[in-house]
Amino acid sequence: MDHYSIIISILFIAIIISIMCLELRYIWKLRIDPKIAPIKNKSYTKLTTFKAVAESLRSQGHDTTEIDVLLFRAENAHGMRKYDECLGLINRIKIILAMNPE
After folding, report:
1. Beta-carbon neighbour count of residue 29 at 10 Å?
2. 2-35 pLDDT, tens per residue?
3. Do 21 and 44 sit in the same domain of this protein?
4. Which stretches of 1-102 are assigned E, i.e. beta strand?
5. Of 79, 80, 90, 101, which residue has the fewest beta carbons closer than 10 angstroms?
6. What's the burial of 38, exposed, middle or buried (CB within 10 Å: 0-12/13-18/19+)?
7. How far apart are CA 50 and CA 31, in angstroms?
8. Are residues 50 and 76 both part of a single domain?
């Protein structure tokens, strides 16, 4: 092998290692704390459920303005990773729905 082949091989290996390091760094950022994961899943599930309930009520002609505002705030809280706040807003929606049975 001549000198150019060796230099190109070393550069290629260095590029591959750099890419691998960047990928691993990205994957490590995606890992979720095991204590937070159940709360995140619970808030997402409840948020999705109550969005469907609100859509169903809206399609039946009910006024869901207050619920829509709380859902919007809950979605924002969930997006900002404030899962406890999201669950609190969803519980308020649950209370509103329980008080208005029609």
Report:
1. 7
2. 788 888 888 989 999 988 888 887 777 666 666 6
3. no
4. none
5. 101
6. exposed
7. 27
8. yes
